[in-house]
Design goal:
Blueprint lengths: L2 H23 L5 H12 L9 H13 L8 H22 L1
């Protein structure tokens, strides 16, 4: 994947994670955003060798939502923060 295309995809993924994290802080679990995050990964990001570690972060995020209880939203928000940090690291390497 070309750098510019990957940067665009990663930025869209990061926006989706930002929105999910914001919803979690308001006490809402937006399942549509989780599906969107998974779609971003499935549509090219996960296949790029520079993004191999993101799959683990997305899996951790997904696992924290399997039991959607408000008490676990803080764990999911932390998983969002870790995913965003990993995305930022990759973006910093590329740009």
């Amino acid at each position: 994947m070309e750098n510019l295309d990957l940067v665009r995809r990663l930025r869209r993924l990061r926006r989706a994670v930002d929105m999910l994290q914001a919803d979690l802080h308001r006490g809402d679990l937006n399942a549509e955003l989780i599906v969107e995050i998974e779609k971003h990964m499935d549509h090219g990001i996960a296949t790029d060798v520079r993004c191999v570690g993101l799959s683990t972060r997305v899996d951790a995020l997904r696992e924290s939502t399997l039991t959607p209880r408000r008490a676990l939203y803080a764990d999911t928000a932390r998983a969002c923060e870790q995913l965003k940090s990993s995305i930022d690291e990759i973006l910093n390497m590329i740009t």
